[in-house]
Each structure stands twice: as structure tokens, then as C-alpha cells.
Amino acid sequence: MRRHPLPEEKIDPATWIFLMYFAILIIMYMVSSTIIGAVILGLYLSMIIMVPARLLMKLKFIGRGAAVAISAVLVFTALSVTIIMIFPILIDEASNLFSTLSAGPVSWESILEGLPDIFSDLAGNTQALEIIQEIGTRVLSAFSSFGMSLLNDIVTSLPGMLTSVVIFIIASAYLTAMIPVLKKNLWRFFPKSTRKKSIKFVETYYSTIKSFIGGQVIIAGAVGLIIGIGFTIAGIPYAVFFGFLSFITNFIPYFGVIITSIPALFLGLTHYGLMGLIRVGFVLILANQIESWVLQPKVQGDRTELNWFIILVGILLFGSLFGIIGILFAIPIMVFIKEYWQTYVQEAFNRK
């Protein structure tokens, strides 16, 4: 019997089904942000794992299972090494900073004398020195207060973080293995009348997100290289580690450099004082500007077909609504909205 297409005046039921699934996800996140957030992060990591796995699968002697296993081991090892190394560095440098601050008032006159002539001339100007001393003292006080607050927040949230980490690891491993199964059973989530179109929509969206993740790997690698080389030239300790840390954290678009800046500024200040802050700040700002104005617009703009300004605004908006999960998934959410609008909303508008 011949199947008739949907009536001209009838809206595709998938229009409401996708909205329903999206609303359920938001509600679940609002009810239990720790668990759902960890699961979402696990999904994100599973897609990152698939980037090197797909490269390995191009080798004829490596099957999918082996490629995924090797890739997962590499990714989890990279994350583990980063976490294991970052905390001792933070604690040591924070201790050095607080010891320096507690030893007595900072001699801003001697600091200025060690700078280039354009700045060292200010050391003999009493009025300028007083202004610099007041500003510098406030900056150091705010910086040390922020460091103490950050450490306190980490200690306070440690139990919840451990729960999230366990769920995150389990979810990423499970979802990496189950993606082929989910693809085979995708038809179960949509009514028969619109199943073919709905599955095609999901496959197109998933393909775009895969491309986005691949692009983010390129951007993260470039930013990590810039920071690693920049810190080496600037003489900042642990330059290679900070380049690696930037690569890991830069899977959060635009904000990876900001995350790296916290321990890097500690090191710059404790080892080289004000000049250390200037060196670190220059390298970080350079990396951030190259990412914002060159890498993100060119790489992700072409892959997601989203304007760079829309990407930046979306990251800030979803970050303010959902925190780090919103920042991480801002681009996938915006891609979904774009695809959904073009496929379903625009079609509904065009109906008679």
C-alpha cells in the first residue's frame, strides 16, 4: 500500500519531540546538575576520544575496538598527568607567594628601578611612587585573596567533585563504547511517520559536532604551542607543562587560556615579581587574541557555519546560565538551534 506524505497543513511531530527531549535534559540538569553535568562531560570526552581513534582506525591492522581503547588510554593518561602535576605546582607557588607577602611590605621603588628606563624614572617621583604602591598593594591583596578563596572552594567542593569525576569517567567510557549501539536504536525515539527525516537530522547534527570537536583539537593544539613557546622565551618555569595544560583546558572554547592563567600568574609573580606578571600576561593575551580573532572564527566558523560574534555571545550567555557545562556546550547547543530552526521551524513558517 502506498504511503502518503504528511498533510500540507500538519506540523511535523518531530518539531515538538525534539523540544520535549531538550526540555527534559534541561529539567534533569536543574534537578541534579552534578550527575547530569558529569554525564554530559562524559559525552563530550567520549567524542574527544573518538578523534584520535578515527585516525588509528585508518590503519588497516587496527580495528575499532583497539583504536578506541588506545585512544581512551591516551586521553585519560593526559588528563591524569595534568591533574596530578597541577595541584603540587599550585600549592608550592601559593605557599611561596604568601610567604613573600607575609615577610613584609613590598619595595615598589626597588621593583621600578629594575624595570626599563621608561619605568625606572618613576622610582624618584614620590607622587607617582605612592600611586603605584597603592595600586600594587591592592592588586597583590586581591590576588592573594583570590588564591585563598580558590583553594577554599576546591577543598569545600572536593566531595562533590570526586562524585562527578567517578560518574564522568564511567559515562565517558560507557558512551564511547555504546555510540554504535545508540545509532542502531535511534529509530526508537521517533514516530514512524517522521522517523527517516528525524534520524537524518540527528546524523547531520552529530556529523557537525564531530567536525566541531576535530576543529577544537586543532585550536587547542595551536594555543598550547603558542603558550609553551611563549613561556619558554619568557623564561617561565614549567613552560612545556603549561603548554600541555593549555591544550587540555582549551577544549573549553576561549576560556582555556583563562584557566591556565591562574597557576601561570602565580609562577610569574613568585619567580620574577612584577616583570613575571607582565611576561605571563603578554603571552596569555597574545594566545587569547590569536584564538579569538584568527583560530576560532576561521576553524569553527567554517565548520559550524556560525558567525564568530554569535559564538562568543553564545558562550558567555550559556556560561552565565549553566556554568562550565554551558561554556563547554554553548557551540553544540547553538548548532542544534540553527539546524532545528532550518529543518523544522522554517518549514513550519513556510506552510500554508
From TrEMBL:
This is AI-2E family transporter. Keywords: Cell membrane, Membrane, Transmembrane, Transmembrane helix, Transport. The keyword Cell membrane applies. It comes from the Bacteria. It comes from Candidatus Thalassospirochaeta sargassi. The chain crosses the membrane at residues 20-45, 66-91, 158-182, 217-245, 276-296, 308-337. It is a multi-pass membrane protein. It is found in: Cell membrane. One of its GO terms (cellular component) is plasma membrane. Belongs to the autoinducer-2 exporter (AI-2E) (TC 2.A.86) family. Its main location: membrane. One of its GO terms (biological process) is transmembrane transport.
